[in-house]
Design goal:
Chain A has about 140 residues and is an all-alpha fold. Chain A is about 60% helix and about 5% strand. Chain A is built from 6 helices and 2 strands. The first copy, chain A, binds a DNA duplex (30 and 30 nucleotides) through helix 2.
Chain lengths: ~140, ~140
Amino acid sequence: MKIGELSRATGTNIETIRYYERIGLLPEPARTAANYRSYGEAHRTRLAFVRHSRELGFTIEEVRSLLDLADHPERECSEADRIATRHLAQVEEKIGQLVTLRDELSRIIGRCRGGLAADCRVIEALGDHTMCNGDHE
Amino acid sequence: MKIGELSRATGTNIETIRYYERIGLLPEPARTAANYRSYGEAHRTRLAFVRHSRELGFTIEEVRSLLDLADHPERECSEADRIATRHLAQVEEKIGQLVTLRDELSRIIGRCRGGLAADCRVIEALGDHTMCNGDHE
DNA sequence: GCTTGACCCTGTAGTTGCTACAGGGTGCAT
DNA sequence: ATGCACCCTGTAGCAACTACAGGGTCAAGC
């Protein structure tokens, strides 16, 4: 499989594949006589693992740890569980932040009734730093 | 006000303040004889506006537009409303994505009962690219 | 008067996770 | 032989900061 085929097979940008190789997430593949990268099924599987992990929001370093664990099936999987659980907590925290954000944005936008910027509630609310979160630190 | 005081007054990193000045979000302040930046109340207000906008997730370019509008109170505020409304839609989309993510992560983690990585459901699930989202494109 | 420490300056490079060239080589069909 | 699609390396760019390195300034204390 050449890099273009692997790209299509996994929905990964070609440049991204080469990037993953450069940072050591994917092993260097064999080369053809013309110096083209030549991939096998194992590469495809590994790249799919990486892409799926990334889509779930794991950082590159977390993916590295997860891959490392996948490469050593004799180890305990508690590390994988720990990474995933911590990540879940982060996702939940982010959701909470975004919900707060959404509410504040809705509140701000709701007050806008058009007219001149001088009277704009959106701009006014942004300039007002004594916000509803009570952050008086 | 020197840059350190402005930093404390707005909860903004000093380097960030200088960065904002460099990219033209904040005007260049006057300088003391020792070439120290000297800020007034208007700077503080403007920086607070920028920080608040950034906390709400507006991009720098969006903040630039909002500031521009705040600087021209004779204009219509529909642009501000448009920016904020579009941003709200993006936040809502992001929340939806993260909720999907959270559910998938929960599902994966819920199946982990410890033991060896060889049997780890987390790692198995990451490797499995035929996921529940039915993405067969 | 001299040092210590906190503060300030500029300029550049690093971060994350890619993405986009520039400038070239290869392979196959017409 | 001439397109064209594909591949190669290496470097630079993106957002939005953050972190130095290497220097200057200022007030307080000995």
